[in-house]
Write the structure tokens for this entry.
Amino acid sequence: MPTIIEWDNTCAKREKDAGMSRGRIMKRDKNRVCPVRLAGSLDGRIRKWLQNPQKILAPYVREGMKVLDIGCGPGLFSVELAKMVGKSGKVFSADLQEGMLRKLRNKIHGTELEQRIQLIKSEQDKVGVPGKVDFILAFYMVHEVPNKGRFFEALKNVLKEKGQLLVVEPRLFHVSRKEFGITIETAEKAGFTAAEGPKLRFSFSAILRNV
């Protein structure tokens, strides 16, 4: 089973083996959505141990909340969010790829979580969430967004006043400290206020508030 480091390097390694330079690899991969064929590496036991959803999200999520997991992939965080918000809460799991949503659908089929999680096939500039939410999670996906300004504006429009958005981005080959700083500046221009997020291995994080 791949580790987080192995997953972060998979796409770059394949391009490098094909004879491309590292600079071109990084430039090409930054805005590329992780393919469905790598979904297993997003949902394994090692990742759950390194990035424990309950531990990461406990300060921000409580029972009864409406939550958006944007770029949810196969649903590692969506499943745990659904447990945290309880029967009175709701999780909107949005992803660009139908294949990722299918994996999450199969995972929760026939369980009580099926009623708490609503799957949403999103578009590049449209989230598609019905109504406002209390909390948004954007985990390891903002670097894949071509127009981050419009992205943060869209999220601000679906987030309740004083709601929070947790942004977590991967270090290593994907995002530099400077690039993460620019991302947060872009969010602030869209109307968010930023504070330091949880400390996570191999990651940058920030908590953004809609004020």
Notes: DSSP finds eight helices and seven strands in the chain. The longest strand covers residues 159-170. The first helix runs from residue 4 to 17.
